[in-house]
From TrEMBL:
It comes from Helicobacter anseris. Mg(2+) binds at D42, D81, E112. Its main location: cytoplasm. GO terms for molecular function: 3-methyl-2-oxobutanoate hydroxymethyltransferase activity; magnesium ion binding; methyltransferase activity. The keyword Aminoacyl-tRNA synthetase does not apply. 3-methyl-2-oxobutanoate binds at D42, S43, D81, K110. Its EC number is 2.1.2.11. The active site is at E179. This is 3-methyl-2-oxobutanoate hydroxymethyltransferase. It is found in: Cytoplasm. Pfam families: Pantoate_transf. GO terms for biological process: methylation; pantothenate biosynthetic process. The keyword tRNA-binding does not apply.
Length: 261
């Protein structure tokens, strides 16, 4: 059964929302139906493309990867990230969001920003495009902020985050990602909002959780954020498998008679 916005919103205060990233049809197919939401995140810039941050990926690449995921996913709710520089003003934001929606089969797009993005968010939603918000630690701002900074550490910052969440809800977003926010602040925001919150590094009280798949399954180990839990040592498993394969080739154990025409 296909997950919709209504499905996700009805889970608030009843059942936790599960989400994971995917960047291609292969993993989109594996994760489909296992989680509620699949995010085609601009995190692919780091884990998939080898860049040091998310800023290097453009709208063309995001559309390409989102189309690939959408071709494989039949049940989960697919969200595509708007890339850095693709929504800097209202005109560009609408143009790129409409293109994203038309060229992919994504159920929604996601963009980063609080009070400074409310007008842009509303203008995109007014075009009939579903938008997921994203506040707190915003990776697209990490370079300008001098690193990945945890948010909500003081009363003023906490109040700003709550104002941003309410403003985005009023603008019409159907859900908000809370990233890198102190747990007690994320809890307050979640309890205050009518729409679901999806946490990443923001504590257990968010309405749902998301992780980058290559982090969660142990394939990306350049650094490990505090909020990441390894559910698999994927890198080591794959290395063992490739070593077994190369050994079989070198010793002529592969291919066998049964594997030859």
């Amino acid at each position: 059964m296909k997950v919709t916005i209504n499905t996700l919103q009805k889970k608030k205060n009843i059942e936790k929302i599960t989400a994971i990233t995917a960047y291609d049809a292969l993993f989109g197919r594996i994760f489909d139906g296992e989680v509620d939401v699949i995010l085609v995140g601009d995190s692919l810039a780091q884990s998939f493309c080898g860049f040091s941050d998310t800023l290097a990926i453009g709208i063309d690449e995001m559309i390409y990867h989102t189309k690939a995921v959408c071709r494989a996913v039949k049940q989960s709710f697919v969200v595509g990230d708007m890339s850095f520089g693709s929504y800097q003003n209202q005109r560009e934001a609408i143009k790129n969001a409409v293109r994203f929606y038309k060229e992919t089969n994504a159920s929604a797009i996601k963009l980063e920003g609080g009070l400074n993005r409310v007008g842009i968010v509303k203008s995109i939603i007014d075009e009939g495009i579903a938008v997921m918000g994203h506040i707190g630690l915003m990776p697209q701002f990490a370079r300008s902020e001098g690193g990945y900074k945890i948010k909500g550490k003081n009363e003023l910052d906490a109040q700003r985050l709550m104002e941003e969440a309410l403003a985005l809800q009023e603008a019409g977003v159907f859900a908000i990602v809370l990233e890198g926010i102190k747990q007690e602040v994320a809890t307050q925001i979640t309890q205050m909002l009518k729409i679901p919150t999806i946490g990443i590094g923001s504590g257990v009280d968010c309405d749902g959780q998301i992780l980058v798949w290559s982090d969660a399954f142990g394939f990306f180990k350049d650094f490990k954020p505090k909020f990441v839990r390894y559910y698999l040592d994927g890198e080591e498993l794959l290395k063992k498998a490739i070593r077994s394969y190369t050994d079989d080739v070198k010793t002529k154990r592969f291919p066998s008679i049964d594997e030859s025409y």
